[in-house]
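Suppose a classmate hands you a notebook page containing two proteins, each written out with its sequence and a corresponding row of structure tokens. How would you begin to make sense of it? This section walks through that situation. The first entry is reproduced here exactly as it would appear on such a page.
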Amino acid sequence: MTRVRWGILALLFLATTVNYLDRILLGFLIPAIRDELQITTRQYGYITGAFQVAYTVGFLGAGKLIDLFGSKIGYCASLVWWSVAAACHALATGAVSLGFWRAVLGLGESGNFPAAIKAVAEWFPKRERALATGIFNAGSNVASMIGPPVFAWMNFAFGWRMCFLVTAATGLIWLVLWLWLYRLPREHRGVNAAELAHIESDAAQESAGPTARLGWRDALRFRQTWGFGIAKFLSDPVWWFYLYWLPTYFFDVRKLSLEQIGWALPFIYLMADIGSVGGGWISSWLIRRGWPNGKARKAAMALCAGAMPVAALAALAEHVVAAILLVSIATAAHQGWSANLYTTTSDVFPKSLTASVTGIGGCLGGFGGLLFSALLPGYVVTHFGYTPVFLTMGTFHLIALAVVHFLLGDMREIEA
């Protein structure tokens, strides 16, 4: 049997890496940027909020358009948009212009996960999807590992503006590979009969009747859509908080230099990589051992959610090394959670709706991120410090787990 599907997964992994390189760059370089552009802590909260608003709104349109035009064209359009926006960050002259380009970036980057989740549903059977999602989602952590030391060196050698131009260029290189290599399984010359049968092995179990005619708005009728969306609303802000605020937390509270942060963050996100792949592997392993999809997904998610309150104690740790280790648990647990939560859309909904439902959930997750990781932290950190935010974030996944249990149920495919 050929293994073309893993090559396609490598492309999704690379795209997600590029997506997050563009996304994390501002958070890492903000100690240098804010001095040159005279940006306050509260203004930084507004700038991240601009990205989050656009990202939130963009999810709805991106999911619908990707289901309409397909994952290949949808991914292309999204990546070109966000790469151009990333390059334009180099033109920023103050908080307003920087916030504008963050918003434009957010619109484009909202297409990454709907397109990648749809491509995974097209190329992998259900028993491999959580693992595949965990692997491509690990690209977000690889970006956070390799980015900081490279950005620290580039900022020292060439200045922060060049960093944005370089990351934007990596996206255009990926675009060439995507256009050259991506096809649907039945259209791909490299896929033999055995691999195609493996990819389509769920076909006999998936209903092709009424659910195949469902539209984007019809999905809102199902409690499963809201279960996925509310879980994203509650859990996504935790990741956004760490992504946006860790560099400033280490710089302002733990008194690390930019160079020291550049080496601390790769370790944290290496652990997140392990969590992303490991979380997807756990549920896939349980399914191979005969567990129902829903039970396997929820078991893996419960393990991850239970680790989050412990990890939140990073804010109370006396030594910086202990804080880094606890934050590493948080990022690993969240990514393991995310690999399984994303996969529920392809477990429950037909392939024609996978990107749309992912977009709906992404929109609610983005709104949660805007509220709990962009706007409120800017105020809370300014007046009360980081500790209340850390401790609050530690509870969100457990609440989201209860929502998943009651609204997503056994995660069987929906019936119209």
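The notebook's second entry, a different protein, reads as follows.
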Amino acid sequence: MTAGTISKRCTCTKDGRRLGGRCPKLRRPGGTGWSPHHGVWQYQLELPPLGGKRRQLRRGGFDDRDAAITERDHAQALLDIAADNLAMRGEIATLLQSCRPGTPLPDLETVTASAVTAEAPATETTLMADYLPRWLAARRGLSPKTICSYSDHIRLYLIPHLGDCTVEELQPEDIEAMYTALEARNADILAARNHTDPAVRFTVRGVRTLSEASMQRLRATLRKALNDAIKKYRLRTTNPAEAVELAPGRPPKPRIWTDKAIQRWAVTKMRPSSVMVWKPQQAGQFLDYTETHDLPLYALYLLILNRGLRRGETCGLRDEDVDLDAGTLTVVEQVTLVGYQPVTKKVKSEAGDRMFGKSLKQPLANRST
């Protein structure tokens, strides 16, 4: 089975016939991408053949691409409930084809419950400590960074806290107990950092707390593992990770280094926010200092401050990506860390490589000198 395709269609006509997906207005000028203002999205998904004949699920009328992708993935998830049971897979495909245009597809739990009653569930139980490593080993198409993140979550948190639970009987209360323990660990680390005894502070040197965003990413790993336990392995019918409430983990609000903020920091030594933004004059002062003390890094910082490149994109620039005579550069690769090891990867962008034009030659405004 293929992953399906996503495309656009419209109702424009030519010579009395609909153009469908051949309408030139569906593409941006130059054919660089889809037009955001013309046509509607649709998807197509291959289904198991019936009587030797090919079957496809085609549904359209979606206002945005993400909605089409979401329903296509939901349809694929319904098919995956059957796993290797070809007869059941064919029945689910017939069910999908019977859905009228504009009506929602069946929900996952309803189809899963029907599949479970149609075939006796396994009697053996599986420990989370056994399931999670096997689940990760079976994943395909993941980036090295994602594999490293999943592996750390499993090794450091999920197995120590949930390893003795079975996949079939894992409850939201078990997951909530894990997060309660992790929050208590955060409190212990912070208390040790502020302890008056240097020996106690030394015990947490280099030890990091788990932020709200990290807690959310940990749940995302667990949720994906349990979704696969439902869809691919049919070990259970519900996902207990969905019922656990966590802080939203929003990024900190950036603040500007105003004169009053600087005066207060000089007295309290406390930053108004973990993300502080320089004003142009302050950025210019930093560049003046860097130009005097570290000329190679000055060129790097000057480029970042003028053009807003990410750190990894700047470190990934090659000679052939930069044209100083034309004043242009193209971001093709970036350098990222995977388990503290630098890794070079291609920049992902629907519009292609990120390009910066001749304004590259314009200097930063309000330099301090």
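A careful reader of the second entry would note: The chain has three domains: 5-118, 128-243, 256-361.
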